[in-house]
Amino acid sequence: MMIPVQERLKADIERWVKKYGCERSSLLPVLQEVQKKYSRISGHAMQVIADHLDIHPVEVHGVVSFYQFLKEGHKGRFEIRLCKTISCNMAGREQVARQLENELGIHFGESTPDGRFSLEWANCLGMCDQGPALLVNEQVFTKVTPDKVHDILADFKKMMDVNVFQQVEEH
To answer: What are the strands of the beta sheet with 117-122, ordered from one edge?
Structure first.
């Protein structure tokens, strides 16, 4: 029997609140866990978190909307963030940005229709001496060129195809 997503979400949040504690300081780690597992933070998730931490849902929403790495809307399985600092710009960021948009068929701030990729800007990835820098989920790529973009995306597409194939075989 399949458990509805909202029930799974609630159980996961309860588990994470037990792990991090039910203080206000646990808000960010719990939100990060929700983001990591569900690729977004829904209004329902914000309400459940607020209830468990005994804070107002508006406070939870304020944190979600403030931090660039947290998102209410749907994100792709692989979230790509390109650094937009001046040092990355001087190292060729614009060419890398255009290549990403062309290969994925989306613009920054969008996700691919199949839900595999999201494209976002990052204010700084801390790799100013190795720009342009790119972050895919938690994996950093430095000195990225348009040619490297093609290879990076191809690797993640393969990874996605392998995961889908494995899931089909398991059922």
So the answer is: 117-122, 78-83, 134-136, 139-141
